[in-house]
Design brief:
289 residues; alpha+beta; Immunoglobulin-like; 3 domains; four-stranded mixed sheet; four-stranded antiparallel sheet; 8 strands
Length: 289
């Protein structure tokens, strides 16, 4: 009987551990009375959890059944001036939820340019420490000061060390690994095959992160910039060609889930452009597989 009760007790404890909610809490300075926090999936662009603030504080619980990944953490209702003296009404950043950390504290302030400070989350602390150091080197390189060459070398070494030595969190390691070369690449028309070789196109796990979203947006932005404001079919960018290139590259992905996601993501972008000819073209393409 004692043995039976011991087994039951162990099963109850294990069940409680595996069903444990993830608590995300914190404080944000300079918010309005109607401020909200939303946690949004990059994979399907759906809100997985949201809550209101109480006296600049928030507390939100997420079921442990959520997929491990990187999520958009969106704050609406800010009253904060940025470095350009512009009023910020919303602010968002990437939040790692790896299901190893069941309490994550987040603290934000206008005085630190809204770089989040984390408590009880080594994965996010490590990632944003890396991002701060990356920004320092980038600012120096952009300013083209006399140490720019040295800082480029330091930036490359920073990324290499972070990727090679980060055994703590696979999500931050994957973001550093997949997005580094993309962020510093220069896109020309028909460069899509080379550009997207920098990321793991066959890895469907990366859909639970911003990696494909960031890569596609970066490609389209740089592709359009290459036209130097020349009109193509009354548009400042040949979106049809840009989107066709992206779909063609990902059609070679060994992951059907990735290739289908890319096609659907592109079509959402087409709808936002409100161009009926473009919509009809890609709608036909989507329906015909």
């Amino acid at each position: 009987m004692k043995k039976f009760l011991s087994i039951v007790f162990i099963l109850i404890i294990n069940n409680n551990l595996f069903s444990q909610d993830i608590l995300i809490y914190g404080k944000v300075d300079e918010i309005s009375n109607n401020s909200k926090v939303s946690i949004i999936s990059y994979k399907n662009d759906e809100i997985v959890a949201y809550t209101d603030f109480t006296n600049e504080n928030f507390k939100i619980r997420i079921p442990s059944s959520i997929n491990s990944g990187v999520y958009r953490f969106l704050i609406s209702g800010l009253k904060c001036l940025n470095s350009f003296n512009e009023m910020l009404l919303t602010y968002e950043f990437d939040l790692i939820i790896n299901k190893k950390e069941f309490e994550i504290g987040i603290f934000l302030s206008c005085t630190n340019n809204y770089f989040p400070t984390f408590v009880n989350s080594g994965s996010n602390e490590q990632w944003y420490d890396y991002k701060k150091r990356e920004k320092e080197y980038l600012d120096s390189i952009i300013q083209n000061d006399r140490d720019a060459r040295e800082n480029i070398e330091k930036l490359v070494l920073l990324n290499k060390n972070f990727v090679d030595n980060n055994s703590f969190d696979s999500w931050s390691r994957n973001m550093a690994k997949n997005l580094f070369l993309i962020n510093f690449s220069s896109i020309k028309p028909n460069d899509s095959e080379i550009f997207f070789n920098y990321i793991e196109k066959n890895n469907s796990d990366l859909l639970n992160s911003p990696m494909f979203v960031y890569a596609i947006r970066k490609f389209v932005t740089d592709y359009c910039a290459s036209f130097n404001n020349k009109l193509v079919n009354n548009q400042q960018c040949n979106y049809k060609d840009a989107f066709d290139q992206i779909i063609a590259v990902f059609s070679n992905s060994k992951s059907k889930e990735v290739s289908n996601w890319v096609r659907n993501y592109i079509f959402k972008g087409v709808l936002e452009l409100k161009d009926n000819d473009l919509k009809d073209y890609f709608e036909s393409k989507l329906n015909n597989g």
